[in-house]
Amino acid sequence: MGKIAGRLAPRAVRVAFWDAVRSGLDVREALVVSGAGRSGWRWFERAGGVKGLGPAGPVSGRCLSVAEREEIAVGLAAGQSVRVIAAGLGRAASTVSREVRRNATGRGYRAVPAQIKADVAARRPKTAKLAGNPELHGWVQGKLERRWSPEQISVMLKAEFPADLEMRVSHESIYQSIYVQGRGALRRELAGCLRTGRALRKPRRSTGQRRGRIPAMVMISDRPAEAADRAVPGHWEGDLITGAGNRSAIGTLVERSTRFVLLLHLPGGHDAAAVAAAMTEAMAGLPAALRRSLAWDQGREMALHHQVTMGTGLQVYFCDPHSPWQRGSNENTNGLLRQYFPKRSNLSVHDKPRLAEVAAELNARPRKTLGWKTPAQALREVLDQGAA
Question: In the chain, which residue ranges form alpha helices assigned H by DSSP?
């Protein structure tokens, strides 16, 4: 099992890390979201990118958590039946019964000892089938060297050895034997025989899940109605404008009722951590009444939206895919900003004073939609009303 700051990493941390990777986040973002720290890099490399495998043992949401084991212990102490406990957990009765049978000690069933026994068992994976069957191993390796895909191999094994159940292996097991270090089945170099040629497996989305989906998103359809009619200030729209090759970026924020603009300086990159930090800094000087909500598209730069909410008080709402009109004020502002920051240019050359200068110019332009007041004047009126 991986360690965090010299102690064993909680199972929940490893589950959260792998769930974040599977959702489409890159490893750096998954480390931050899960709190895994540097240990996550080792888990990813040792598992070859295969979720929850490797020396740490299987990690899956299907496994009972510490909290669930505590509920089982409390239920048993109260004299509840296995079926009643299972119903309360939303688990099968057989799952709870098997858990009690396997992980109870001489003193009965206790959550912490049961968790320790489960973790120890998880660190003892069985010998991979390909490692323990030389004939099967040789047949599979030979076909891989002839550029057969794992699925082709798995299907043809049944055709070639219809009566020999030992000559069976799933295509998923073949992939795992190639990618996961320490399983002792197939050489890692055989990854070069696969059509992708990857040395690490690329995480796939779950069924029905959009690639790159951000965990725990709240969609814009759930945003308060007051934000839609622009009558109440404090609701913002945001996005990034990017430079040549998407290698540089500037964050843009527009307040919906006053059209007031803030620009985020992102000199070190525009990943989720950088965007969250810049947004927290930019919003720090505004009163709470002007920090109600933020609408953003589903870009991965907002993967740490929970940190944005904690640091600013803004509830983040995500727009539907390919729906720029849901951030109409921000889209219009981004068009104006291209006068200052042309496409296919290097945006990292613009320092923070330059961004402040451009924002001040936009906020000093009279706007027809504001009755020819400037965004700065409209914001001042809002602030004065709040102070009155």
Answer: 11-22, 27-34, 39-46, 66-77, 82-89, 93-103, 111-122, 129-132, 134-145, 150-160, 171-179, 225-228, 272-283, 305-312, 328-337, 352-363, 375-387
The two three-digit tokens of residue 321, written as one number: 């895919």
3-state DSSP call for residue 185?
coil
User: What tens digit of pLDDT does each residue of 213-240 get?
Assistant: 788 899 998 898 888 888 899 999 999 9
List the structure tokens of 175: 């992939």
State pTM to two decimals. Answer: 0.49
In whole angstroms, give the CA distance from residue 97 to residue 100: 5
pLDDT band at 128 (very low <50, low <70, confident <90, very high): low
Give the span between the Cα atoms of 178 and 180, in whole angstroms: 6
DSSP string, 319-379: PPTT-GGGGHHHHHHHHHHTTTS-TTS-GGG--HHHHHHHHHHHHTS-BGGGTTB-HHHHH
> Any residues with CB less than 8 A from the CB of 259 and at least 6 apart, and which?
329, 333, 367, 369, 370, 375, 378
Position 366: which residue type?
P
User: For residue 201, what pLDDT band results from cuts at 50, 70 and 90?
Assistant: low
Spatial distance between the Cα atoms of 228 and 346, rounded to a whole number of angstroms: 35
